[in-house]
């Protein structure tokens, strides 16, 4: 696992946006040949990244023409037009500003009549796209990745999940009241994320410090589902200084040393 520590959340955004741009540009995706397949999260953590990706696109430095995206999750019961749905979030913060083809955007439907069939079709669509090249993710304060709440199987696939009370309360900041937050979501599984060729996790802010500590320094546990990344062959966590508050000084020094020797 690579751990990159940046001073601020803005710098984390800059680092990851540059990283993604480089990946897409070097891949040279073409319509005939192959698309670059990105997994994407919602939440406040990816916002600085999306802002920069949009800016790069506006400056003509990045095209999404041959990029396919799969979002991590969606609330059950919210239609794509609902202002608190993840469909709406993605459209408002990224998709409406870039040149991605409508048919290349994939987001689970929170209003599917048959949730199980919706999840199975999502897994099949990922397979058809050739798998995910880079899955970008955020993390919950309880260490969840996508909506894989504590206790989720680390081998899980896309499915319906009941949200914990903690997640409902934390996510209520995007709604008008706690009672408006849906209690269920459709989410890719930990196994779905682990199948990606590469996983990049954004961890910013002091409120994520315990989750980062559990993910990096403690053992793999279904109670902190992001810790499964310890078993991934190509995972990178990019965090800010605030998020390192619970890490050992020795751990922080080590990963900083590794990064500075990488730059030599
Ligand atoms: N399902 C999402 C996760 O994918 C996200 O990582 C997490 C953290 O969100 P934020 O970045 O706003 O802290 O929130 C939600 O629960």
Explain the overall architecture.
With 264 residues, this protein is α/β, with parallel strands linked by helices. It has a single domain (2-263), classed as Rossmann fold (3-Layer(aba) Sandwich), CATH 3.40.50. Helix content is 33%, strand content 17%. The chain has helices at residues 9-27, 47-58, 86-93, 115-128, 165-171, 190-194, 209-216, 249-263; strands at residues 2-6, 36-40, 67-71, 73-75, 105-106, 134-137, 159-162, 184-187, 198-203, 235-240. Strands 1-10-9-6-2-3-5 form a seven-stranded parallel β-sheet. 42% of the residues are buried. The mean pLDDT is 96. The site of 2-amino-2-deoxy-6-O-phosphono-alpha-D-glucopyranose has 14 residues, from α5. 2-amino-2-deoxy-6-O-phosphono-alpha-D-glucopyranose is lined by residues 41-45, 72-73, 138-140, 146-147, 167, 171.
Mind telling me which CATH architecture this is? 3-Layer(aba) Sandwich
Beta-strand level of the residues, as a percent range? Answer: 15-25%
Helix content: 25-40%
Q: Average pLDDT value? A: 96
Q: Given this structure, which CATH class is correct?
A: Alpha Beta
User: What is the count of β-strands?
Assistant: 10
Task: Please state the overall shape, judged from the principal axes of the Cα atoms.
Answer: globular
Taking all Cα atoms into account, the compactness measure Rg is 18 Å
The order of strands across the largest sheet is 1-10-9-6-2-3-5
CATH fold label: Rossmann fold
- The total number of structural domains is 1
Low-pLDDT stretches = none
Q: What hetero molecules are in the model?
A: 2-amino-2-deoxy-6-O-phosphono-alpha-D-glucopyranose
- SSE order, one letter for each helix or strand: EHEHEEHEHEEHEHEHEH
What's the main sheet like?
7 strands, parallel
Give the N-terminus to C-terminus distance in angstroms: 20 Å
Helix and strand content put the structural class at alpha/beta
């Amino acid at each position: 696992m690579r751990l990159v520590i940046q001073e601020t959340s803005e710098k984390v955004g800059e680092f990851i946006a540059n990283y993604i741009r480089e990946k897409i540009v070097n891949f040279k995706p073409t319509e005939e040949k192959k698309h670059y397949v990105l997994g994407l999260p919602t939440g406040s953590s990816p916002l600085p990244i999306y802002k920069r990706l949009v800016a790069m696109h506006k400056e003509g430095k990045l095209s999404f023409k041959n990029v396919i995206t799969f979002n991590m999750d969606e609330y059950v019961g919210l239609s794509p037009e609902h202002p608190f749905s993840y469909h709406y979030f993605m459209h408002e913060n990224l998709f409406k500003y870039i040149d991605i083809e409508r048919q290349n955007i994939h987001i689970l439907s929170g209003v599917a009549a048959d949730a199980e069939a919706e999840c199975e079709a999502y897994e099949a669509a990922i397979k058809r796209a050739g798998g995910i090249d880079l899955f970008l993710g955020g993390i919950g304060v309880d260490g969840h990745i996508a909506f894989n709440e504590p206790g989720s199987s680390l081998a899980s696939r896309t499915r319906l999940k009941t949200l914990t009370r903690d997640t409902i309360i934390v996510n209520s900041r995007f709604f008008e009241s706690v009672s408006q937050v849906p209690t269920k979501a459709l989410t890719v599984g930990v196994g779905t994320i682990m199948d990606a060729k590469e996983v990049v996790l954004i961890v910013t802010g002091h409120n994520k410090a315990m989750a980062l500590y559990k993910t990096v320094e403690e053992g793999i546990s279904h109670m902190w589902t992001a810790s499964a990344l310890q078993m991934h062959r190509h995972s990178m966590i990019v965090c800010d200084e605030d998020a390192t508050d619970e890490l050992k000084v020795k751990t922080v020094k080590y990963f900083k040393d590794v990064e500075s020797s990488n730059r030599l």
